[in-house]
Amino acid sequence: MSDGTSTDPPAKYDRHRVVAWVAAYGVLTMVPMAIALLGPLPEPRPFFVEFGVGLGFLGMSILALQFVTSGRFRRIAPVFGADVVLQFHRQAGVLALALVLAHPIVLVLTDAEYLEFFDPRVNLLRALALSAVIPATIVLIVTSLWRERVGLNYEWWRMVHGVLSLVVVFIGMVHGIQVGHYLDDWWRQGLWVGVLSGAMYLVIHSRVVRPLMMRRQPYRVASVRAETDDVNTLVLEADGRDRLSFRAGQFAWITLGDSPFSLQQHPFSFSSAEGDSTIEFTAKELGDFTSTWSDVPPGTRAFLEGPYGGFTLDRCAAGIVFVVGGIGVTPAMSMIRTLRDAGDPRPVILFYGTDSCEGVVFDDEIRDIASGHLDLRAVFVPEEPPDDWSGPSGFIDEDLLRERLSDDELAYEFFICGPEPLMDTVETGLRDLGVPWRRIYTERFQIV
Amino acid sequence: MLHHDIRRLVNVIVAALTVVVAVFAAVRSA
Q1: A28 part of contact set with chain B, CB < 8 Å
Q2: What residue in A sits closest to B6 (Cα-Cα)?
Q3: A351/A378 Cα distance (integer angstroms)
Q4: Closest partner residue to B2 among A45, A46, A437, by Cβ?
Q5: Nearest-CA distance from A345 to chain B in Å?
Q6: Closest Cβ opposite residue A47 in set B7, B20, B29
């Protein structure tokens, strides 16, 4: 319970805050149209010309708002959860693409003279810029929705995404001024450039200003601990000052090496407890970055940006249920360790889906905690169990949850983290079991 | 919040904004 002086983040999924943020988003999408309608207005044009122009204004505002919902804006995450914000960002990106395409299509279909904007004989630079912005937006969306399928590694995707998003918004900003019409006055142009530049600055802030600030707060790798054959824990200590404070279940962006400007910046959930003196991250060797962890020598510099995310414990919950798969156990482990350290009396249930019974991450520690340090019931669910296995096996689904959870336990808070199929199945299953969405928290570790 | 909730939220926002653009166009073409 809050005593009024707590510095805890706001309650997750608080209805008023959710409504306030959604309303603010809606209002901000209308800012370009509002700028166009301020002051003396130009001569009216046919409905579909104005409709096409309106789509363009809307596309620009949604593109600009993508910089706010990119996951690096900390105030939103505690309200919705970082996972929800990023899912919204993905879907709004598709909407922005649709608008960027619809804007010229509606205009050209209404009046073929608008093809002139793409004619290099009329204005070479304009034709090139506008011809480039459509494929650039398509590349932005395609590489984000299907990064692995198009064979782009994460570092290059991050670079391409940052640069292309700035290029697209910049071209749109210049295009608006070149067209004029609604943006003929200097003050309208000033507002237009000011609003869009402010949005673009968020990228500069995230990619340049924040790393500069991080440079003053370096960490060192204290050790690397092998949890299993292909899972390692990176133990970091703050270099001569207090470490950042975080809430169990949150994540941070890690950069290893001497410069915080490296393209190799990846998000990982904290796996250590809130009160530990060191900070730990646990990862499976899945990509270029995590494959190097086992060889990172102690003393290596590291930089942390965060903490982020609203996948955190609620002190008012009657009990907690974690449903995790594979390495998705890490944020749950941070919360379980924190609950253990706090002597929390509430019941905790852990459904832990694994490939097999071999090499289960934190297996011994979970069994130890469950043996008396916390009211923890661990349900291991191996996909391929050994012959003598008597517990549940296969995949965690609605049937298993219904079988293993009482009605009282279905009133607990649910935290789901793991591979996409597990998350989709469990989210839908819990909904079908009558668990309201406000008590279901998710964290998808494959963000792009 | 579930993924289909987010999709529903985006759909509602899309519908509302389409109406706003149509009103903008109607006001400006009148």
Answers
A1: no
A2: A88
A3: 6
A4: A437
A5: 27
A6: B29
Q: What are residue A353's DSSP bridge partners?
A: A325, A381
Q: What separation, in Å, do the N-terminal and C-terminal C-alpha atoms of chain B show?
A: 42
**A343 conformational bin, left if phi > 0, alpha if psi -120 to 50, beta if neither:** left
Report the side by side order of strands in the sheet with A320-325.
A376-382, A348-354, A320-325, A413-417, A440-443
Measured between beta carbons, the chain A residues lying within 8 angstroms of B24 are 33, 36-37, 50-51, 54, 57
A368 contact partners, CB below 8 Å, separation of at least 6? none
- Residue by residue, DSSP assigns A178-224 as HH-GGG-SHHHHHHHHHHHHHHHHHHHIIIIIHHHHHHTS-EEEEEE
- ipTM value, please give it: 0.93
Residue B29 Rama label (left phi>0; alpha psi -120 to 50; beta) = alpha
The pairing of strands A440-443 and A279-284 is: unpaired
Q: Parallel, antiparallel, or unpaired: how do β-strands A376-382 and A348-354 relate?
A: parallel
3-state DSSP assignment of residue A5: coil
Q: From CA A119, how far away is CA A339, in angstroms rounded?
A: 65
The model's pLDDT over A171-205, given as tens digits with 9 standing for 90+, comes to 999 999 999 899 999 999 999 999 999 999 999 89
In three-state secondary structure terms, A76 is coil
- pLDDT tens digits, A361-413: 999 999 999 998 899 999 999 999 998 999 999 999 999 999 999 999 999 99
Per-residue burial over B13-26, b if 16 or more Cβ lie within 10 Å, else e, is: bbeebeebbeebbe
Measure the CA–CA gap between A95 and A98, rounded to whole angstroms: 5
Question: Among candidates A219, A213, A235, A244, which has minimal Cα distance to A302?
Answer: A219
Question: For the stretch A132-155, what's the b/e string if a residue is b when 16 or more beta carbons lie within 10 angstroms of its beta carbon?
Answer: ebbebbebbbebbeebeeeebebb
Nearest residue to A249 via CA among A343, A345, A324: A324
In angstroms, the CA A95 to CA A25 distance is 14
Place of tokens 């050994």: A386
Q: Tell me the whole-structure pTM to 2 decimals.
A: 0.83
Task: Give the one of A13, A44, A92 whose C-beta lies nearest to B30's C-beta.
Answer: A44
Residue of A nearest to B26 (CA): A47
* A260 in Cβ contact with A184 (< 8 Å): no
Separation between Cα atoms, residue A257 and residue A276, nearest integer Å: 23
